[in-house]
Amino acid sequence: MNLRIDAEKKQGSFLLQLKADVSGDRIGIFGQSGSGKSTLVHLISGLLQPDRGEIYLNDECMFSSVKGIDLSPERRRIAIVFQQAMLFPHLSVKANLLYGYRRCHAENRRIKPEALIALLKLQPLMQRGVHNLSGGEKQRVALGRAVLANPRLLLMDEPLSALDDTLRFQIIPYLKSVSEEFGIPYLFISHSILEMQLMTDRILVIRNGRMDETTTPDQLARNSMADNPKGYLNLLHLADPVLQNGLYAYSWGRNSLLISGGGADRASLFELSSREIILFKKHPEAISARNLLHCTVTEMFESDGRVGIVLSVNGEKLVAEIVRSAADELDITIDSPLFAAIKASSFRKLA
Ligand SMILES: Nc1ncnc2c1ncn2[C@@H]1O[C@H](COP(=O)(O)OP(=O)(O)OP(=O)(O)O)[C@@H](O)[C@H]1O
């Protein structure tokens, strides 16, 4: 998918001036509250008209003030999943799901309802009304309804921010798998760096109504390391734990990790803050941390006076964070061999 936008929109005293040319199937739009993300979503979907400029999706003109083109939202075939599910309250789950499908031209009906219902595990809910669904169930129905409209682009406008952490991480695999399974590219809007890391490959950063930069999730996490209370978040997908003296032992590439908050699930996602990793120049004699990893420095980066140390642990990547004086004292350079100590309780299970 390619999105080309060069447009302006004034909302009260707020001026949105956007210029971007971005390609990919999992694009993030990141910005703080009030930076203009939702306004951008409305401009792209056709719910709002730019004051001037143009918007192209895959070389097809959606809007051009010069050419006098302004395709209706239906003709753009862009579906939106909002923060609140916004289901039709008087319709059943089934009728909500089929709403977009029935309005979609027969030649565009590529995605079959049965396949989507199975993927989103909605079968048991089909005959129910939408009032007493849980927040996660509502969001799955809203996602299903958007996808069944057979859009060529899915706009996800903070779809996870109304959900608690447990539900958030349950919904993420559904968001990713519908896009992958049915080949629908998406724009994912959020102010969460963690969500950007989990959902996107390429990110447009908006600041005060301007497109600030195009970056990667990893670079965004690095740039925000000093400001983020959790530093840089390392994300580890681990599977098949073995219980050992009350801790869970996971294989991580050629390494083994001991984690206290593991679980019976076959596969889990953990976050590990860069601030939870203690670095040693020499092998420490005796420490309480249950994980001591031999590693090599592959990269170093600065983030507002803090130093990010990118480590290779037998080929697996981990980012640790120290203050500049510690980096100087330890005389850390690229290829320095180090030991990284991590407490078993430092890993937080997300899903
Ligand atoms: N109809 C309007 N009239 C006046 N100002 C508006 C209008 N709509 C939006 N704004 C202003 O435009 C700015 C951008 O709003 P927008 O909702 O796009 O931001 P956002 O990045 O999506 O924020 P959030 O993450 O909080 O949803 C805000 O300052 C907002 O108050």
Write the layout of secondary structure elements.
Layout: E1 2-11, E2 14-23, E3 26-30, H1 37-45, E4 52-57, E5 60-64, E6 69-70, H2 73-76, E7 78-81, H3 93-103, H4 113-119, H5 135-148, E8 153-157, H6 165-182, E9 186-190, H7 193-199, E10 202-207, E11 210-215, H8 217-223, E12 233-239, E13 242-244, E14 247-252, E15 255-259, E16 267-273, E17 278-280, E18 291-303, E19 306-313, E20 316-323, H9 324-329, E21 337-342, E22 348-349
Parallel strand pairs: 3-9, 3-10, 7-8, 8-9
Antiparallel strand pairs: 1-2, 1-4, 4-5, 5-6, 10-11, 12-16, 13-14, 14-15, 16-22, 17-21, 18-19, 18-21, 19-20
Helix pairs in contact: 3-5, 5-6, 7-8
The chain binds adenosine-5'-triphosphate (ATP).
Adenosine-5'-triphosphate binds at residues 11-12, 14, 31, 33-39, 191.
